[in-house]
Every structure is written in C-alpha cells, then in structure tokens.
From TrEMBL:
<protein>
    <submittedName>
        <fullName>UDP-galactopyranose mutase</fullName>
    </submittedName>
</protein>
<keyword id="KW-0274">FAD</keyword>
<dbReference type="Pfam" id="PF03275">
    <property type="entry name" value="GLF"/>
</dbReference>
<comment type="similarity">
    <text>Belongs to the UDP-galactopyranose/dTDP-fucopyranose mutase family.</text>
</comment>
<dbReference type="Pfam" id="PF13450">
    <property type="entry name" value="NAD_binding_8"/>
</dbReference>
<dbReference type="InterPro" id="IPR004379">
    <property type="entry name" value="UDP-GALP_mutase"/>
</dbReference>
<keyword id="KW-0285">Flavoprotein</keyword>
<feature type="domain" description="UDP-galactopyranose mutase C-terminal">
    <location>
        <begin position="149"/>
        <end position="348"/>
    </location>
</feature>
<dbReference type="InterPro" id="IPR015899">
    <property type="entry name" value="UDP-GalPyranose_mutase_C"/>
</dbReference>
<keyword id="KW-0413">Isomerase</keyword>
Amino acid sequence: MNISIGIAGAGLSGAVIANELAKNGYQVHVFDPREHIGGNCFSYRDEPSGIMVHKYGPHIFHTNNKLVWDYVNNLIELKPYINRVKAHTNNEIFSLPINLHTINQFFKKQLSPSAAKKFIEQQSDSSIDIAISFEEQAMKFIGRPLYEAFFKEYTLKQWGRSPSDLPASILQRLPVRFNYDDNYFNHQYQGMPKDGYTPLIEKLLNHKNIAVHLGSNITRKDVLNYDHVFFSGKIDEYFEYQYGMLSYRTLDFIPIRDKGDYQGAAVINYCDNSERFTRISEHKHFSPWESHDDTICFKEYSREADSTDIPYYPVRLVNDSDILKNYISLAEKEDGITFVGRLGTYRYLDMDVTIEEALNTANHFISNANAKMPS
Ligand code: UDP
C-alpha cells in the first residue's frame, strides 16, 4: 500500500495516530516545528544533576480508562506515583486538593468528616442553583474564605482574568474531600514513566513506515502533497489567523538549582498574591525511586501568549468560542485534513483523553479507508 499521510506535530496525538497508521501499512511523515519530539510532554535528563525534567511543566499520567492505561504500560514502564500538592497561602502551608486536613487547619478545628461537610455547607452559597462562572462554582461548593485563600488570586495569576469571567468547568477539575485523602486526582490509575515521557513518543514513532522531520511543519499549502493530513498544530495558525487569534496562556519557567531538597515536595502552589509565580515544581520528587544529590526546581509564571509563544492553556472565553466556530466551519469545508489534539481542536486535554481520542481518530480513518477499498 502506498498511501501517504502527513502529520503535523510529534506530540502525543501525532505520535499515536502515526503509530496506528504505520502498523496498518500507511507511509507516514511526521513534522514538528521544534527540534525534539514529544510536544509539551517532552522530558530529558538535566545536566549535570541527572534529574528527569519535564521541560514544559509537570505531567502526571492519570486515567480511569483501562484501555489507555494498558496501552501506555505496553509501551513503557510506569512507576506507581500519587500526585500530592501543597499550597502556600496566608504564610502557611496547606494540603491540596481541599480535604479534611486543609479545612481543619484553615479553620483551626478538629472536625469529623460529617461535621466538616455541614460546616462547609454553612459557608457556601445555596442560592446558586447552577454555577456558570468559576467564582460561582467556588461559592456554591466551598464558600468565600476557602475560595479567597486558595483559588481567587491563583486563578487570576494563572488565567489573567477574574474568576467571575472564567467558566465553572475549570474548577470542576478539582475534587473537594471530607476525609484525609490528599491524592490530587480521583482517577483509578496513576503513574509516572520510569524514564520520562520522551521514550513513549520514541517507541510510537520508531516504525519503518514513519519518517520524522524536526524543525519543520505542514502548512495549508502542503496538504495537497498527501493523501490525508492529521493536523495537531494551532487551528487558527493553519488558517493564517484570518478570523483572529484564539487566546492561550503560555508559561515561563525560571530554574532554581540547589543541593539536597529545596522544598520537600514535587509541587507547591502559591495561592495568594505574595508571589507572582503560580507554583514551584521540584522535579526530582517526580521520580522518588531515584536518588540525586542536587536538585532543580522551576518557578512557573503564566502570561498571555502571542503568536510566537508556546501555547499551553486554551482560554476559551466567549470571544474565543465565536472565533473558534468560524475556524471549525472552515475546517469542515477543508478537504483531506483532520484537526486533532489540544491545539487542533482548541480544548484543554489531559494526556489520557488525548491518547483515547487519537486512537479513535486513527481507527475511524483506517476503517473508513478499508470500507472504500475495492474487495
Ligand atoms: N487552582 C487554584 N489554586 C490552586 C490550584 C488550582 O486556583 O492551588 C485553579 C486554577 O484556576 C487552575 C484550576 O483550579 O487552573 C484547575 O486546577 P488544576 O490543578 O487542574 O490546574 P492545571 O492542571 O490546569 O494547571
């Protein structure tokens, strides 16, 4: 079979699709404008410390999807890992997500789970029927004191917008617990790759039918060179921003090098406005099975992305939804291309959802193509 496929982006979406198609006999060309594979889950060993670093910020693999969990475990070794995050606010360190420890420490109480639930219900605003904004969601479920201490300023720093203008869905990502469970995620499966995420992408792209081209990308004029293109770059950039730019937040990481243990935890969020950065990640704590004398941390600053910055978080406010609708209708009329992944579809996607969607997209394409083949 000599069907040629172009893939824009060597991140998770592009690599999973490339691998599925290559296994089915397609000739696949994967392009990425950066000089490395892996997209924003690229990891590398820092020099001279030898510590595994997630270049574009911490990525913890977590999912409820057994198929996706098995898929990743068949490719690389995942070590058991539970994400536990601390919060710095009002000159104190607390436990996140909001749990019984956080509540008791914050309110200087020793409440039982049921007493804490009642207590928080008294703080929260029961007049809010359906929470639309981030702020309403916080008021409805945790009340003003916890909202102001842990969410209001952090969210302003992270998104550059007032929580009253942001959607409730952003906060719905986080659990609130009335027990002492401080696991940041509710998912059944959670782990960290023993040797980082880059080997996962390498394995996916290591196939005789796949050619990887770094430092270059597929643009609209290149699409005709392929039987089909999967595009995981920015959808607005593909259409040359003709309806304007979709807003993204980008991140700046400022390194701190030290000896020993800098902060005693993988992630500490700075929830009030005593600091301009949102959090500090200390990367050796993401590989607790390794031992290193040195340490490297990153202070994370969030700001609005311009067209040359690396896009991280799609903002998705009303204005963006209007712009996105225009691009989606252009995309639907465009022949020979499928837009995939976080940037191609302008959605905030966790890694497990990215993999699941990429597998579905590839398999759907393969079965459609097979159905069209003469028997
Ligand atoms: N958030 C916050 N304080 C925190 C942690 C999270 O205000 O200490 C808010 C913030 O707006 C963030 C959202 O909750 O974007 C979702 O948190 P999550 O940890 O999922 O953030 P992400 O993984 O998107 O960085």
